[in-house]
């Protein structure tokens, strides 16, 4: 068979090291300097590695007809998968909100005032002290502002794919449609054992996305180029896809 027709298989879970996810997330400007967000990135990486083993055991249990199936394994995998997706989404949401705040302060001339306000807080208020240090760094290193803008673009697609799956799991709705009601039924990826979820828009299934693919998207952040405006626009059209009319 010609190489162009061969399916590209995902990496073995044994070859993926936890530091790859930490490196991907830490490539986002200012995330590493935030102790809480940095700690969350290590937690996500540790649980990701644990879940990949569960996923492979789940896959093998489905391929081995002679071994009795353990219903507890599938239940536990579903629970761990959902919790990981929720945690990954919250970390990315928190970072993006911080990045947007910094950019807004720079653009409207409020950076110095915000720094003074935060530095006036008592020293035990570590959260505000930490943010103040980040803002001082932005003041002293103006190039960080453009890096934040670029990183918001780099993380746009991975974040909104996470958001798509997360909203369907947590709210049983489609993103941006509070009147919808859906129930996600995960399916097993035939290569990794990871749980696949349908990305729906009304009666349409736009695509499927597995937890492993979501994690791989975050791992890839460290090597990802800034997407073009055309790429972002194309993704937004994909997110808002409507049922075709004939």
Could you explain how this protein is built, in words?
The chain has one domain (17-239). Helices cover 59% and strands 7% of the residues. The protein is built from nine helices and three strands; from the N terminus they run αααααααβββαα. The protein has helices spanning 18-26, 35-63, 71-107, 111-119, 126-140, 143-154, 156-170, 211-219, 229-239; strands at 187-188, 195-201, 204-210. It has a three-stranded antiparallel β-sheet. Helix 3 (71-107) packs antiparallel against helix 6 (143-154) and helix 3 (71-107) packs across helix 7. The longest helix is centred in the middle third of the chain and has 37 residues, at 71-107. The chain starts with 17 loop residues before the first helix and ends in a 7-residue tail after the last helix. The mean pLDDT is 89.
Distance between the termini: 38 Å
Class based on secondary structure composition and strand pairing = mainly alpha
Tally of structural domains: 1
Q: What order do the SSEs take from the amino end to the carboxyl end, as H and E? A: HHHHHHHEEEHH
**Main sheet specs:** 3 strands, antiparallel
Low-confidence stretches: none
C-alpha Rg (nearest Å): 21 Å
How many runs of DSSP E, i.e. beta strands?
3
Described by the principal axes of the CA atoms, the overall outline is globular
């Amino acid at each position: 068979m010609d190489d162009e027709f061969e399916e590209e298989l995902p990496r073995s879970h044994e070859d993926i090291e936890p530091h790859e996810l930490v490196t991907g997330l830490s490539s986002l400007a200012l995330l590493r300097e935030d102790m809480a967000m940095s700690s969350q990135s290590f937690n996500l990486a540790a649980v990701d590695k644990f879940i990949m083993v569960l996923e492979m055991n789940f896959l093998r249990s489905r391929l081995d007809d002679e071994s009795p199936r353990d219903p507890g394994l599938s239940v536990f995998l579903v629970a761990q998968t959902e919790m990981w997706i929720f945690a990954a989404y919250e970390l990315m949401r928190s970072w993006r909100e911080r990045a947007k705040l910094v950019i807004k302060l720079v653009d409207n001339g409020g950076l110095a005032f915000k720094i003074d306000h935060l530095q006036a807080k008592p020293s035990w208020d570590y959260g505000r002290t930490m943010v103040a240090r980040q803002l001082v760094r932005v003041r002293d290193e103006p190039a960080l502002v453009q890096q934040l803008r670029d990183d918001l673009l780099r993380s746009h697609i991975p974040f909104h794919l996470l958001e798509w799956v997360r909203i369907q799991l947590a709210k049983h709705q489609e993103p941006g449609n509070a009147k919808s009601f859906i129930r996600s039924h995960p399916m097993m990826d035939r290569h990794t054992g990871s749980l696949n979820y349908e990305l729906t828009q009304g009666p349409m299934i736009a695509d499927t996305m597995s937890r492993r693919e979501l994690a791989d998207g975050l791992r890839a952040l460290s090597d990802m180029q800034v997407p073009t405006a055309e790429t972002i626009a194309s993704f937004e059209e994909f997110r808002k896809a409507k049922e075709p009319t004939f």
